[in-house]
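@channel sequence for tomorrow's demo:
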Amino acid sequence: MNFNGAEYLINKDPTIHQKPEVRYTRVQRTLAGEKNRGKSSDQVQDWLEVLEQTHVKRASEDQAVKEKIKTYYHKQYIWPYKEDITRGAAKVEARAAREMGFGDIAYEGEALRQRQEIAVVDLEKSLDSWINYLTSKNEQYPIWFRYYVFTNIVKLGSYDIDKQEFRKRTKDTFFPFPDIDRGALAEVQTQIEKGGPFANKSFAEQYAYAIKTNGEITPELRAETRGEWRKYDQGTKPDELWESLQNKGVPWCTRGYATAEKQLKEGDFYVYYTLDKLGQPTIPRVAIRMDGDYIGEVRGVADNSQNLEANMTDIAREKYNDLPGAEHYEKADADMKQLGVIEKKNRENKELTREELKFLYEVERDILGFGYESDPRIKKIKSTRDIRLDLSIVYEVSQSQIALELDEINGETIISLDDHLLNVEYLIKNDITNLKIINGGLYQHNESGDRRISLSSESASVLRNLERIGNQDVVNASIDHLGSYSVERLSPERYQDRCSGFIDISLNYIANKKSHDSLTGFTHFLTATEPEENRFRVFNTLWDVMSPDQKKELYDLVEEFGDSENYKYLLGNVLYRPNISTEDINFTTSSIDRLPQDKQEEIISQWFRYDDQEILVNINLHPEIIEFLAEKNIPLVNRYFEKYRTKLTGQALSVYIGGDENY
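structure tokens (generated this afternoon):
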């Protein structure tokens, strides 16, 4: 029995012969003096022949006709939903940003308009791919099948790799239309024409089944790891990158033309392609998107969440380890995934493990994200939980040994979660000696009237069990390993007294214990080396809080221990300070002068390794820095001044020229 495409379309849509376009064909035949056939399937077939004439023959011969066809379908399937599409894109991207730790973002004004433009262009390009394919006279599909595919493909969202099915397309769906899988489409046509249960399935089911059995990335192709990396340079046109991702089933938003264009404006783009059935590297498996000079994201094709496949992890890591920002990316990415797991478990009222609670409450370290502020999900999750119960599990103490407020502190208290200053005299008077963790700060009224902590025998007694001090919003530093926690959220205007008190007790503790590790931790803490890009800002913030006496005490301790690491982290940052003082310069240069020559060269070279021009501001303001450096005659420094000599001004230039033989 011969297959009849028109009858198949009627079986799928019994009203198709009543559609205006079919009825219009009948009118045209009548006006032309032709006899209309009576059977519905014949009427549909007559209309299909007209459709083939306009959409295949004429469109293939005349590009203007094809462009009109594209515009017609853009108006029908995309343009009426611009606002909904934009809201859909903004909602999904806001959720993604939140999951990556960027906090809550909102598109407004020009940003919203640009987001709409990108979403619309991506959809137009995606739909055009189908129009180009289904109107090509070089393809062997019959017209009934072309119509059947197109009218169904516009109803489908993206392919769900995990569920192996298509999502339904709604008016706010901004993801591109499904990929064109030529092998799968051919299989759909073959199976329909054979008849049987397959023909009765929906197109979404038919196409999903064919992709699963005939798709691009088969289990055999997924097992393949041989391939090559390709780099697409920032600022280049997206055509080559975009083309390489079409019809490959990747769940990356870079499949959209405008999105690929936007991402290439922001940074380089790397893709790892494995070998296809012909042995050519065409199957995209790993993507690394750069955001400026740093890694923006690393994505794979294991599932719809764009996770890396197990056999691609080492390949991806080997590549991104050679790129700027690799360490921060790997830690932040792992933390954001862990926070996502905790958020989901908390939402579903599932019990969190002790390790998950330690992570959530940032007991051992801060949670790293990709944003500039702490991930807002942390605070939101905590607000739904019994904090006293959680921390009793974390620290393995009873709930009665945790004080949430100052007035709850007693002789049994081990953990104080109140973020206010705690009076050492009060602790002594009430014999409170079990405190291990103080979330706030400490102060003590001395004879001089200041709040410096004096480690007298009495205060040392009540503080002997202390392991950590500091408010999460201020300093949160470990006494034994000072500086383990980030201070990037420090607010000196609000917490100046508390910060000064913290610095006092830290310096006193280091001096009393003669602890080199504590000093190293403290200098790391002051310079906030994680994240590195914030270290100068944080150092300046803390340096402004410190009194001259505190600075001298810290310099004396650094000099007493005399290792280059403390000089590198502490003194190097002084030179980069805006509005550097002569006192700071004298402290720095005199301390370094007392070190061995090799240590001096090591420390000074660290200052100039970034090859930036920030330090020139201070050099122009303080020519004595040039005199100090000229005496050292360090090759790296000499090359620096040779490169930036035209940036020197006034007395600094005069000093430089006078000592030119050293450069």
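heads up for whoever presents: The first helix runs from residue 5 to 12.
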